Structures are given as structure tokens and as C-alpha cells.
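Input chain follows. Return C-alpha cells only.
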Amino acid sequence: MIVCTINDAARYAALSEGLALAIEWLENHQADEFVKGVYTIGSSAAGDVTVKCEEPALLPREKAALEAHRRFIDIHVPLKGTETIGWAPVNALKHVRAPYDADRDVAFYGDSAHSLIHLKLGQIAVFFPEDAHAPNIGLGNHKKLCIKIPV
């Protein structure tokens, strides 16, 4: 997992072609007005990099389930207020809430997060397949980007 500002994210671009593409796109578009939807922003050798602009209702910590992906890296970018995200290493989780669904590329867990991240405007959180994360913790409504990078 990586937490940093958008302006400092370029140092991580060497980790993968898709991550480099997503970071460059985010640097060039961080001031844009985003509307809800899914957009393809480019392709890497592993596949298309997409951006989902979402407006989810935030959940109390105890209702936010940890999720993990096997085929994608997620970059979470708050567009309105602070988003709290729970984190835990996948290999430490014991309580499967919903087993891995290959079609949706997600598994859900009933374990508690080991750490909480308070992601502010101008920051990003990058979650790799070994990182379980529980997004959208807080009160009220939220607006965010979730960039999906194939691995």
C-alpha cells in the first residue's frame, strides 16, 4: 500500500506500466470536474486502465467490509472531503465473508482492519493485490475516483 500526495506519486511510476499511466493521467486531470461513470484512460501490456467516478454513501467503520482483488491495483482518490479507508494484509485475514469471485475480481472479509487511513483531498491511496481495504468509511456522502490498473 502507498499513501502519498498526487504531486509526489510520480516516484512510484516505475513499479508498473499501468501505474505510470494512471499517475500521469491523474497529475494531468486532478483539477477536472468529474461526473459519475466509468472511463478508460489508456492501455498497458496487462490491459485497460479505467477510472470509476463514484458518489457512495459513507458507512460506519463496523459496517465497512475489507475487500481484496487479485487482478487489479486500486488507486483511491477523494474528490470531496476526507475518506477513511481500513487496511489489512490479505495473508493475515481469517474470516471470509464472500469468497473470491473471479468475474468481479473481489473477495470480502469479516476481519477488522489493522489500520485506518484518513485520505484527504490531494492525496491518493494505492492498494495492491496483497492489500485488503475497506473503503468509504465515514458519515454522509462522498465523491471519489477509483482507478483500476490490471496486473
